[in-house]
Every structure is written in structure tokens, then in C-alpha cells.
Amino acid sequence: MQTQRGAYHPAVSAEHSHSAAPRDGRWLVALALVLGSLAVLLPLLGGRAPWQERFSAYFISIVLQSAPYMLLGALIAGTMERFLPQSWLPSAAARLGTAGIPAAALLAPIFPSCECGIVSVGRTLLRKGLPLPHTLSYLLAGPILNPVVMLTTWLAFQDWRYPALRALGGFLVASLTGLILRRLPLDFAFRPQFLAGLNGALPEAGRSRIHIRRIAYDAALYAHASGSAAAAPTLELPPSLGQRLAPFGGSVRQVLAHVRSDFLEMSVYFLFGVFIASAMKTFIPPSTFSHLAAGTVSGPLAMMVTAFVLSLCSEADAFPAASFTEFSLNAKLAFLVLGPMLDIKLLMMYRSMFRSRFVAAFASLVVVLVLAFALALGGLR
Amino acid sequence: MKRFNAACLLRSPAARLAPWTAFYLAAALGGSLHYYIAPWQQGVIWVSAAALLLLWLSAVDWRPRPGAKAQPLRPAEALEGLAHWAPLLLLLLIGPTELSAAGGFTPTPLPEVKTEQTPPPLPEQPEAPGLPYRESGFIELYTLGPVADGMPVRLLGRLTGLEQGGDLAARARAGGVEPRALFYRFGITCCAADGQMLAAVLVDSPVPGWAQPDWYSFIDTGWVEVQGEARYIEADSPVLAIVVHQISNAEPPDEPYEYSLSPAPLH
Asked: What is the pTM of this model?
């Protein structure tokens, strides 16, 4: 009997594998990142240029600032993966029906995360059987309906309308996106390799397979702790402390393996997204869009493009937003609502599970909904 | 059957986590955090460095799966492994550097400054240099707004040409002041990525001899300390101007930026 502790979770199995796992197109992203890094570093042979220093400062600061939250998201995801019962989310979603989609947006305060960590949590929710529209709703609303984000938004503006309208916008756009996209076939949305790993998307077969794996895993752990599989039925002495802690140690190892696997998988997409965002910040002056501030539509649109390019963390983006004094309230809200849902690095991270065509459709829908929300607030000053 | 080779090691989680761990440890222990991250965020970096070290240690006990056959490293896997090194390489080969004004702004065409023209007199001139100068910062002066008008101040920053300030010079002229140079420092809230140029225009003192005549030579020479009088110029959007009394070279401050969430340290 094999007693690998990694037998329970696919992430652990993949981590221990000696064969090259399917790379899911990630190598193309990695190739682009490596070539891009060379394009920045090779000119150093001829001396430093100011653009290299600016690029480096932007790239390093965004990575330093954001990766901890990606790590935290992976930790939350790993803990959920190990401890959240497999049947809980699918049955809750089935009970709530369509109402579950907006309800999923309200999960954010329970599993708080900013946008860098939320993708890991979303992937785990999908693996745990939460339907796609519900997960989308959570993914979009999560980084906004986060208590820390609400607090920093208030701190930045000192005006209760900003956090309140930001939360409202986040909730509405997330819920509507989930509701509108609820009929989409899964194979349109997911990359094939990711879909293959979704036990939750195949409820009966998935649940039974997980259940069997769980039993096998528990049996394996017990046998491992006891020294041999045959010893288990005849064990008479009370288990030692080490034996009693073995399942706990196994769980910790499971969670850590999941964190490693998730973090490393997401980080390639994340780094490429940060690379693009840093390049755009380096070469596009910040005042590029300021002449559009006065327009009814161009103001919110300009702020949405700025949010997309800046790729700031949702826990800190309210402060730069407050500094755009020439823009109106609704344009600033367009920035605050769109930024945590869609930016360059997030777009790349979404690609870790979704097909390009789905990301394009989904992103277009989010842009339209956020713009509509901003325009609806046009009368506010 | 060969069960383990170098490829197994290179594709292991420990090998891929190593550059991440080294990156965070280098940023934290190398003392360069203040070039990238605001003080209120720096604790997060230390915790992350510790967490990554722990994660890396937990991956070091990685062992080959019994019975599995070792396979050579594919180019795709090698590329993915290399990608994780990008932040560390940029930090070691380029950083740490602070943001500079160069390259960040689109120059606005300005009318040529007529050096022989006497700048228009400003109301309420200070009687003489040697006033009780207040050590201040750009954020403080912008926050105080009209309250700071006429305040004798001492600020740390850098001088650059007017062309780096977008439409700031044009706005100052619209407010009746002839700017001669741009005095700036970067302000950040969370990290250098949200850095914004905090700038004031410098104007000649209307009283000849108050400032050294060659103070323009301090442009693009590094950090300087400016003593002068803060002026709040009403234009389409207000402009901060400083009437120069004295400029001198200064040591780079420990914290190159001003921070929105904490008082700006000057030295």
C-alpha cells in the first residue's frame, strides 16, 4: 500500500510528480516574461538609462506590495481546500438557486482578500464545486467588499459616499456579471486542463472520487502513523502524541503543498501582468488622460483606463484615486470599482483558469457595467 | 530506472521558491524597502519574507515520488523556472533606485523666459532673509493651501527644468508669477507604483541679492535644500510657488519620498 501524503490533493500529486505536467500555455507567458526581462537588463551593458530605473522601481514595488496578498490568498485557498467539506458549496448553491449568485458576492467579508489573492481563492471555490456564475460574482466583488478596502477608501476621501457607492457598485456589477454569464457552457469558459481538474463541476462523479480519495488518505495516514497497514486493526496501546498529531501534521503539509503549488502557478501570470503594467507606467505619462476629465463619458472612461494600467492593490488604490482632483465623483468611482475587478495583472491571472475568449467577453461585460454604473451616478458631485 | 536527476531538482517547488525567498529577504535585509514601499506597508514585507522562508523550508524536504521515473527538463519548464528570477535580478542589477522626474512627463511647449525681465512683484514681501523658517514638506504645504501663503519655509527636494512639470509653469504664469525652475519630490501612499510628483515652482526673489545669482546651476544636481517663502498662487488649479532666499546642496534623505499617511521626514 502506498502511503504518500500527497495522494489526496491534485496539487500535491502534481508537486511530487517527476514528469512534466501539462503546462497549459503558461510557458508562452514565461517566455514573454523572460524575453521582456532580457530587453530591460541587456541595455545595462551600455550603461543605465532613467527608464530602466523607473521601470525597475515600478516593477519591484508592485511585486513587493502585491505578492504578499497573493501568498495570503493561496493560504486561504489551501485551508479551504483541506477543510471545507466538498459537498457544502454545491448544495448551498443548489438550495439558493439564482439568488445564490448575488449571495456569493457577499461571501467577501467571510473570505476577505484583495485582488491578487482572490484568484487563488476563486480557483479553490471552483474546485470545491461552487458554480461558475457564483464564483465570478465572488471574484469580482471580493476585493471591494473587503473591510480593509472599505476603511482605506473612507480614509482616503473622508467622505462616506465613496465607500458606500464603491461597495454598491462592486456588488451590482459582480452580481449582474454572474447572472448574465450563468448560461455559458463550461468548456467555453475554462481552459481544458483546468476544467479536467474540476471535480466540483461534475457533481456525482467528482464527489464520489473525492470521497474515496479521502478515505484512502485517512487510512494511509493511520497506517503510516502506526508503522504498517497491518498493525492498525490489532493496535491495542493508546496512540502516542506523535501518532495523535500525525493527521494534524498531514493537514499542515497538505495546506503548505497547496500554497506552494497555487502560489507558483499564479506567480508566472502575476509577474507578466506586473511587467506589462510597469512598462505602461514607464512609457505613458500620468497626465495623458487628464484632458478628458471634463467629459461625461470620457471622464469615467479615462479613469477606468488609468485603473487598468496602474494595476494597484485594492487596499491602497483609493489614495491615488483621491489625488485625481480634476475628475468628478462618478469618474473616481469608475476607477475604484473597475480597478479591483480588472487590471493588467488580474487579466493575466484570470488566464490561469479561463480561456482567452471568455476573458475577453467577461472583461468587456465588466467594463460596460462599470461605465453604466458611473454614468448613472453622473448627477452626483 | 533512474528515479532522480538534476531536472527533478530544477522543477522542484524548492528551486522555484528560492528566488522569491531571496528577493524578499534581499529587499528587507538589504535596507532598500524605503525606495519601494511606504513605512506602514513595510511590516507586511518582513512577514512575507518570513512566510516565504518557511514555505521554502517546507519544500526542501521534497522527495521524488516512489516509483516515478525521472524525465528530462523540458524547455517550457526551464522557461517557467527562469521567469521566477525576474524580480530578484531586477533588484540586484538595477535597484534600489528612487523615482526621478526624468522621462515621466510630457513637456509642454513654454514661451521663452525673458531673463532680463524683472519678475512681477509679489504682494507682502518678507522684510529680509533670516526669518524663522519652518521645516516643511510638499504635502504639508499643499494641505495647508492658502493658510501657508507667505510662510517662511525650508524644504528638501530636487531641482529640475520647467519642461518636466507639465502645465505647472503655464498655470503659474496665469497666476502672475514667472517661474524659473521646478522644485520637486515624489510622494507615495503605498508603494513607488503610485508615486506622484509633488512640485513647486521656484521664483526669483524680487529683492536683488537675496538668493545667490547662480542658483539655477543646482538644476539636476541632486538633493538641495531650499529656503524661501511659500506662495499659494490662485490659478485654474492652485500652484505652489516658493520665492527663493537660499539654496544649498543637501545630503539625500533617509526616506526619499513623502508619504500621504505619515508626516514627511525631512532628514
From this structure: 0.77
Q: Do B90 and A19 touch (CB under 8 A)?
A: no
Beta B152-160 vs B196-203: how paired, if at all? unpaired
Distance CA A271, CA A359 (A): 18
pLDDT digits (tens, 9 = 90+) for B118-145: 544 444 444 445 668 888 889 888 888 8
Instruction: Tell me which residue has cell 521566477.
Output: B84
The whole-number pLDDT of residue A10 equals 45
- The verdict on ipTM greater than 0.85 is no
B256 near B135, Cβ under 8 Å? no
Give the Cα separation of A184 and A190 in Å (integer).
10
Nearest-by-CA chain B residue for A269: B83
Assigned C-alpha cell, A215 = 478515505
DSSP structure string for B95-122: -S----STTSSPPPP-PPP-TTSPPPPP
Pick from B231, B263, B264: nearest CA to B245 = B231
Contact B237 A4 (CB under 8 A): no
Look at A320 and B104 and tell me if their CB atoms are within 8 Å: no
Q: How many DSSP H helices and E strands does chain A contain?
A: 19, 0
B-chain residues within 8 Å CB-CB of A268?
80, 83-84
Query: Among residues A376, A363, A292, which one has the least CA distance to residue A334?
Result: A376
